[in-house]
Fold:
Amino acid sequence: MKRLSLALFATLCFALMPSSLFAQKVELFVGDAFMAPPVSVAEQPSYCPVEGTCSVPATTFTNRERLNGWEISATHRFTSSLALTVDGSGDYGLATSDFPVNGRARQYLLLAGPQFSRHGRFSPFVHALAGATYQSATASGNNFFVTFPDSKWGFAAAVGGGIDADLSPNFSFRILQADYVVTRLGGSFQSQPRISIGFLFRF
Structure:
């Protein structure tokens, strides 16, 4: 509820700004996002009283988790088909849905890059974005001492697109946006899908 309130507040702020500030070339998207990143949790043997002091290596469990959250993007159109998009999203959920331990995960993305679109009653678009990600996964329970990834920043990129259905000259519904997201955390690459739907406002 708090995340939805923040998204609605941001939308209202943009809507109340003078249209001349954007020169009628800005699109604001606000919607729901779904991601499925791989998350790993490590279990130490029960006879190791302190994390990191045991000679027996921890057992690592990896699972592709289902996170839900928000996405906001601002797009500045240079021409009818070429634009620059700045995109931010945050997704949250259980980090250990299939593990015998309590845990939470969250992942943020901040990306930017070119977007190409074709405007009409239904407006398809594609984009290629790059930037940064922050992922935090925590675990707690009997013998589960390790957090992995441990609140890490890393590189992120996304390639994808979607389609908008125009409801009025200044308002559209984003039927679907699908991105293939690649991140680099903990010295290795991860890949995950991101699916979004929501509303598009034109200024």
The chain has a mean pLDDT of 79. The domain at 2-38+64-141+148-202 is CATH 2.40.160.20 (Porin). Residues 51 and 145 are 6 Å apart (CA to CA).
